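Annex B. Sample input.
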Amino acid sequence: RRGLQLRRSAHSRASGRNTLLVFVALVVSGCAGGARPEATVEIDLGAVANVMRGGIGASWHAIETPIPVTDGRSEGGSAWGGNPDPSDEARWRQLEGHADWLGLDWLRVEIEQRMYEPAEGRFDWDNREMLILERILDWCDRRGADVLLQQMWGNVDWNTFPEWRGNARRRVHSGPLSLEAYANGLASVVEYLVRDQGHASIRWLGIVNEPGHGWSWWLRPPRNPMPLTPGLEAVRRALDERSLEVPLAGPGWTYLPRLDPAAIDFDHLVGAYDLHSYFAQFDGWEGGRYSISEAVSRMREWVDWSHTRGKPFFLSELGSMAFGWGRSDPGPGSFEAGLKDAELVIRGLGVGVDAFNRWSFVNRGDLDGQWQLVDTWDAEAGTLRSRFTPHPNSYFLYGLLSRFTARNSEVLTTTVVDRVAPGHVFAAALRAPSGALTLLAINDDVADRRVRFELAGLAGELALFRYAVEPDDRDRSDLRLDPLDRTEVTPGRNAFEADLPGRSLTVFSTYALDHDEPGVTTDP
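Annex B, continued. Sample output.
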């Protein structure tokens, strides 16, 4: 078991910046060059602000049958395509290796009813998509990751409103003509996966993706949103009839709306609250619908509401549309988008968000933007690549968070004091169940910051290894995230200093992971 154990390989590898692993002595007040700290990060090791009821991961859909693309826009977003055939062992080893490296420990695994119930009451458990689903869930079971199983939509002609039957574009957006049939189908697939197949990783269930809008996938003719609560009631009833205790997560609304208690008539039906966030932008930047600070304020409202009721709050989809999206737009995978996503996670941890799920692990990248963490699809050739590679920027910026954080970690009380330009340096501290410590720090300013990290309540010696993604790493797919250096911290000298380059993400962790090792999912 890794964690506080200090270990190094016999031959230390060089990082992508050709920086050798070196020992760095603790500096308490000022560095050797005499530079004065410009910001302070205070971490109280004795104060637990939240215990996450989840972790940090990404969406992984099992849907492969194409959904219509109209004028360059997919009617099913980018929740389909890009997975290998279930029998393609070589490609699956590659894909699972990337999931291992990222240390994904909380995944939203996405399905549609068409996969398993093509006709009412006729179930198909052995088709290509169901076998892909089994491979995804097998990986989650093996690695100890938690799953929010998400039915995105029905997309079956037999339960589509009559006006839209035979219309492949409208069918995917149609809510169920019969809520009871929809619920029975969903309860049946949960029973098959949990009870018959034994997938213990399935911890939560979502019944439909992003309801409540005229473009949603829960509509009745002509294009009117259907109420969510009757659907939650029907699914909860169908699960209870089968003695399936999987709790529902909802409402799955997008735009990260402000909390409106009057709009919540389903509290008795859900075991967790979840929302999506795509439109936040760096504070003070143009673009986006609201700032990250506004997003944090909204998340805090929902966290308080959820935790007061003893329920977790999940950000069950996150990404960036502020830098462009749609078709093959590279904006969602740009360096700025990845840095913004990382800041949203770090600041979300500070207000008590229990799990984060980035859109998305596997994504074709030519349906509504380049959202993928892993490049599996050759859009020009219209087929899978033979070699799956990290998508530049997003893979490493998000991976730097997910790789060193364990599921169900404690989030420690952390305060940042920036004496130069407040509002640019943010930090979070997580302690794994084993006691392993990881500090996440971001500097979104263009200027570097010298930062002093103070660890109050330190009881024993600590060795922290530093990892970073900086502007020079922009657009690289061959980046290596080996430890850059090591800092020793002792109870008598419980602080250290480090430079946070402008526009960078830095992690200090007691996990000493070489680039070729898998990330952390559970510890222990």
